[in-house]
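step 4 of 6: structure.
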Amino acid sequence: MKPAPLSYARASDVGHALALWREAGPDARILAGGQSLLAGLNLRLAEVDGLIDISRIASLRTIDLVGDTLRIGALTRHADLERSDLVALHAPALAQAAPLIAHPAIRTRGTIGGSLAYADPAAELPACMLALDAVIVAQGDGGERRIAARDFFTGVFETGLEPFELLIAVEIPVLRPGRAQAVRELARRSGDYAMAGLVAAADVTPAGLRDVRLAYFGVGGSPVLARAAMAALDAGRPVAEAEAALDDDLDPSDDLQASAAMKRHLAKVLLRRVLADLTGTEQGRPA
Amino acid sequence: MTGSFSSHVEITLRVNGEPVTARVEARRHLIDFLRLDLGLTGSHAGCEHGVCGACTLRVDGEIVRGCLTLAAQLDGSEVWTIEGLSDSGAIRDLQDAFVARNALQCGFCTPGMLAACAELLDHNADPSRDDIREHISGNYCRCTGYEAIVDAVAAVAAARRGLARAAE
Amino acid sequence: MTVNLHLSELDRPNSYIGKTVPRPNAPRLVEGRGVYVDDVVLPRMVHVAFFRSPHAHARIGEIATAAALAVPGVIRVFTGRDIADICSPWVAVLAHLKGLKSAPQHALAVERATWVGEPVVAVVAATRAAAEDGVAVLEVQFEPLPVVADMETALDPDTPLIHPELGDNLVFQRLHEKGEPDAAMAGAAKVVEAVFHTGRHTGVCLEPRSILANYSRPENQLTVHHSTQAPHMMQTIFAKHLDLPEGNVRVICGDVGGSYGVKVHVYPDEMAVAAIAKAMARPVKFVADRLESFASDIHARDHRIKGRMGVDAQGRIVAMEIDDLTGIGPYSVYPRTSAIEGNQVVNLCGGPYDFQNYRAQTTVVLQNKTPTCQYRAVGHPIATAVTEGLVDLAADAIGLDPAEFRRRNIVRDDAYPYTSAANMRFEGLSHQASLEKLLTMMDYDALRAEQVRLRERGIHRGIGLASFIELTNPSPFMYGIGGARISAQDGCTVRMDPDGSVVALSGVTEQGQGTDTILAQVVAEGVGVPIERVRVITGDTQVTPYGGGTWASRGAGIGGEAALQAGLALRENILVVAAAMLQAEAGALDVVAGEIVDKATGQPRMPLAELGRIVYFRGDTLPKGLPRELVATRHFITSDYPFAFTNGVQASYVEVDVETGFVRLLKHWCVEDCGRIINPQLVDEQVRGGIVQGIGGALYEHCLYSEDGQLMTANMADYLVPMAAEMPDMVIGHVETPTRESLLGAKGAGEAGTAGAPAAIMNAINDALKPFKARVTAMPFTPERILAALGTIPERRL
C-alpha cells in the first residue's frame, strides 16, 4: 500500500507556496499536516502529481491575541490547540475539541488549516469555526481574503477557497464575558469520527441562553448551523422545541455507524447535554 | 513533473543521534525509509493509513505516525526509533516493566506502544488508568487486551514518582 | 498454587512449573529486535503485489499485461494459468464430515473470480511500490456474474450456483439428535426461543500475512520464511502442491506478529508466491497490506442460529434445540475446511449443562464473500452466546436469578467422566467450583444490590454471566481421521551441550503467547537445570521434530508434555553417564539446578559441565559401550479422549446509556480451569487478550457487505477493533483440574477468554435493558442496534 509516484516540492514561505502552485497547476495538493492526505495517498484513493509541502513554514504555526481576536496560523497543530493557554482562555471550544481529534500521534502533526481546507463533514474543527463565528483567512496572489466560516464550508470536502488560494489563518472573536462554549460528540471509540457532534456557544443570562450558536458535525455534507433550533432557544422557547426544530435543520445521511434516523436522534440527545453543559447544570450525563 | 518539483528528494537528518543523508523517493513514507533504507526494522507498518499506531515513533520530540509522514518532509529533523531509544536507555524502565508485566505478546505493536507510553510519562507524572488508556487509544494491540500495558505504565509512573520524591 | 497430587515427582525445590517466569524472548521484542518475515532481506529478492478481483463473482476475460510490464521496476507478471502450471489446485474436504464438498481452488483464479479480493494476477517487481504501480495499470476484462451474498437464500432454487459442478450451494449439513427433544420440549414447563446472529468478523493480526519464499534450483530446495502457526503443515502442503519431496522444503517461522487462527490456513496468494519463487528461482516476498488483509485473510463467525430451550418447573433444562446456518464464502478453506465452525456449534451448544435431549443442525453454504475458516475459539463464542442467551431467557421465564439457574443446571463437579448431549466426552471439569469462585470474586449479590439502587436514579447497569467449555489438546479426531495431513502429535528434542546448557527443539510454535517460555520451564524442570540454561528453538522444520504447531490450544498440553518427557529422558540419560563417572547407582543420583546430586541428601556431586566435558571431549575415559546419549526426543499424542475439554465462567458488568445506546464496560471477570497451570501470568494474559478479542466480536467488529458482495468495512477506520480506551479491567481466577492423560496435566488456555466474553456481554446488556423489555441478539451490539431494540429508532438491516 504505497503511494503512486509523485512529485514533491517544499515551500519556504507562503509566496513560494503560491508560486509552486502556479507552476504545478490547480490539481497540485497542499501538504500541511498530511494526516488525511497521506493516508489517502497510501491507499491510492487520491493520486497527486504535484505535492507542495508547506509544513515547514514556521510563520504559519502561531497563536496570537490581536485585539479581541484570536488569530491562529494555519499550521498550528491540534496538539498546540490542546496546550495553548490563549486558546483555553479565549476559545475554550477549540481546547475542548482538539483532544477529540483522532489520537495523540495524529494531533502532533495534524493542523487546523489542513482540517478546515479538507472540510471533512465529520471533523470537529470546521464545526468549531461555525459555532465561534470565525473568519477564515486565505491568501492568493492578490493578497489576503477573509471568508466568514458560515460561507466557507460549501459541501462535502468543499470550501470557498479559490484555486491558488492558501488558507493561512483563522480569526476567532475572543470569548466575551458571560458567554460559554461546549463541545460534545458521540463516537464509537475514542478518536473515531463522531456519529454526531455538536459545538455550541451562547450567552448565559438569567433569562436563559441567548445568541446561541449550534454547529453540528457528522450529520450532513458539511458542518451545519442549526438555525431553527438556535432561533427557538434565542426566543426562550423550551428545549423540546429546539429539539423539534432540529428536524428542519439537519438532513443527515446513513453511514456505516449510524442511520440518518439515529443521527437525528443523537443530535437531540447532544443538544440536551450540551445545553446543560453551557448552563452548568448536571442534567447531562457524560457522553 | 519537472521544474521545482522532483520525484526524489535529498534529505539530511539525524536518526537515533546519528547523521543520515539520503536521496529518497518523494512517495516513500518514514517507516519504509527507516526499514528499507536504514535497516531499522524495529519500526513496524501495521495499516499504512494511520489508524493502528504500530508505526508510532518520535520525530522532533513528539510522537508521530511514521506512515503519515513522508521521509522527504524530514530534512533537518531528529528521529528516534525503538532501536535508538533502547540503546540510549531512555525508556529502559518502561521496557523492563513491559517485560515484567508481560505487557506484550507478539511484540509487533510494542515499539509504537512504547513510544506512545513514553510520551505520556514525559508529560504526565501521575496518569490515571483512564489517562493511560486514552493516551494509547490509537495504538492497536490484538494480543494483550491492554490491561497489562496499563499496569506497566502505571507501575513506571509510580516508580518514577518514588524516585523523584527520594531525590528531594 | 495447588499441586496435583499424582505429580508429586514434579514438586521439587527447583520446580518451574506453576511459577511466573518472564518470557526469554520479551526483552528482544521490547527493543524492536524481533525478526518478522518482512524484516528478512535476501539477495536478489523481489516483491509481489496482486491484482485482486473487484467483483464478487465474475468470469475472467483477457488479461493485458503489457502496460504493467512497462512500469519501471516490474519484472514479471503471472496469471492464474501461469501459476496453475506450477502449483496444483486443492479441494478442502474432510472424510469424517460426511457429505462435505467444495470445488478445486487455484492459487490465482483461473476462469472465475468468486469474491472481492480473490487474487487474479501477480506482479513481480524490484520493490513493493513498483509492483503496486504495475498492478495499477493491469487491464483485466471481467464479465460480472450473479452474486450470492445472502446466506439465508443461498439454497433457494432460484439462487445462482457458485460452482455449478457441485449441484448446489450446500457445503455441508449435519443433524445431531440425542434423547427425545420433541417429547421433552412438549413436557417442559416453559420453552424459550430466540434467533441469534454472530457478525462476520476477521482476525486483524497486526503483522499482516507475510511470506518470503526462495527456491534453489541446483538443490531443488524451497525455503520459506513464513508467518504461520503450522510450519510443518505448510512444509507438507508446499511439497505436495509444488511437487517437491517434503525433505526439500524448509519452512522457517521466526517472530509472528499475532495469528489467532488466521495464520493456520493455506492462502492462495501465499501459494502463488511459493510457486513464483520456484518459477523464478529467487527470493520472492509478499506482505499483505491492510486492505488486502481485510479482503483475503479468513473471516469467521458468519452465523444465524435459531435456538430453543425447555425447562421444567424446578428450573431444570430438559431439552435444547438449535438450527445453525453459516455462510463460508466460495470455497471451503484448505486443509482444515470451513465446515468445522458449524460442526463445533453443534458440538458445543449446551456444553456446560446437564441435559440429554438435544437436536442440533448446522447448514454450511457458499456465498461470494471472503472465505471463512477457523479463528480463535472456533465456534465457541457462537455456541456459548446461543446457550447462555437461552439460559438467561429460561431463568427469566421460570423466575430464577441467572446465577441460581446456572447452579441448578451446570454439570456437577463429581459427575465425571461425563458425556454431553452433543456426545462430547469430558474427563473432568469444574463448573460448580468455577461458578462459586466467580460469584465470590465479583461479589455478585452486592453488584445486584448496586444495580437496583442505580436503576432508581436512571442509571442502567447489567450483569451478564456465561459458563463455557473449551476444546483443547485435539487428537487426530479433529482433522487427521478426515484425511488432512495435520499433525495432532508433537515432539521435542532436548540436548545437553558441553557446558551443561540445554537446547530444546519443539514442533509447536511461538506466536507471542509464550510457548517458548513454558517449554523452557518444563524442560528446565524435566532435566533439572536452571531455566536460564535452557534455550528453546521452534519454528524451523529442518531442525525441530515434525509437529502440528499452534492450533486448538495445544501448545502447552501437547507440546509441553512432549518437552517434559524429553527432558525427563535426558535426565535419565545424564544419570547413566553420571553413575558410571561417580561409580554410583543411577537411581541414587539426581540432577538439580544443573548439578549431579546425591538423591537422598541433595549433596552436590558434580556439575553438569564436568559431565559434558567428559562425554564430549574425553569419551575415552568412560566405560566402553556406556550409552552416552545427551540428546533425547519424545513425542506425545492424546489417546484416551478426542479432546481435553476445559471450562470456565465469565461475568460482565456494563452500563447502557439508554439515550445513546452506548455500552460502557465497567468490569469483567473470568474463572477458568485449564488444568495444570505452567505459568500463571501467561495464562492470565491469554485469558485477558482473549476476552478483549471476544468483546471485539460482541461490540465492534463486523465485516459488512453490500448486496453485490462488496466489503464495506475494508479498512481500519471502518472495521472497528477493540482499543484501549473502551476496554475494561479484567479479574482472572483459576480452578485447576489437571488432565490425567499426561504427566504434565496441562490443558489449553488460549481460547477461553474469547469463548465466553461475547455471551457475557450480551447477557449484561440485556440485563441492563430488562426494564425496557428490550433485547439484542445480533452481534455486534452497536449503539444503533441497541437504540433500535429500545424502539427509539427504526431497525436498519446491515
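step 5 of 6: annotate
 - The longest strand of chain C covers residues 644-657.
 - Chain C touches chain B through 55 residues (CB under 8 Å).
step 6 of 6: archive
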